[in-house]
Amino acid sequence: MLKVGVLGAGHLGKIHLRLLNESKNYELVGFHDANSSNGEKVSSEFGYTYYNNLDDLIDAVDVVDIVTPTLSHYECAKKSIEKGKHIFIEKPITHTLEEANSLLELQAKYKIKGQVGHVERFNPAFTAVKNAIKQPMFIESHRLAEFNPRGTDVPVVLDLMIHDIDAILSVVNSEVKQVNASGVSVISQSPDIANARLEFENGCVANLTASRISLKNMRKSRFFQKDAYISVDFLEKKVEVVKMKDAPKEPGDFDMILQNAEGVKKQIYFENPSIETNNAILDELNSFADAIKNNTTPVVSLKQGTQALKVALQIISAFNPKKI
Question: What is the reported pTM?
Fold first, then answer.
């Protein structure tokens, strides 16, 4: 078992602590929180060992799970890597692109494994159809959330939209060519709602909308590709796969046939991939343990986390938010 320590005992940190304590791949050594009163409270309530000294915890483990506020990601990761520890780091990987690139250099120097917590990669709806998403040419994503003060210290692009940025980059095998975006601050000092249009070198276009001031929650992406339409509902964990193939010469009574202006006939049919219930956070943590033990590349590498951050920052720089 890998000895692991958690940095940060906020809302998400406590979830990580519970799951790591349950996992058969890890031995939870303890945790550190910059707020000592919160650390002692969590320790008293759940029984986890609280380390008041950050270095002592890092020295005692093989893996450091960083679930601190984004602004402290870099320093926590840098300290851990320089001590030769593998790191799991919540999204976004760091606050700036310079910090992320520095972590990539440190990773290469100290030869450690690193994974970024883009949890939607482990959403069972997405994993059920990911291999069916091949060369999408148009993508539309909506990630809408009711207002929650937690997370408003960063723009909605880094808080919510980055989930979809990472998912899209994982299926579009092409570089981003152009970014157009707009964002507006309604309640927070940073943008609460944003829309972005990404154009890729291969011709694919992705439209992304993210809002944290909606009246209802929605996390849905739609992928359009040659002879297929694939919809992924990350919130409800449902998928819809509609495909087309050449129509048979003698279609059945219940076959759905479309004919275009050129007279070409296509048959529409539906696929229903099986979706297995899972705990996506536990799966991502266990997958990182597997990558360490088997010396393989993590599902969401530090490089991929850096690429998602790069695009997110390009989106933010593309708009001058105006407060209503």
Answer: 0.91
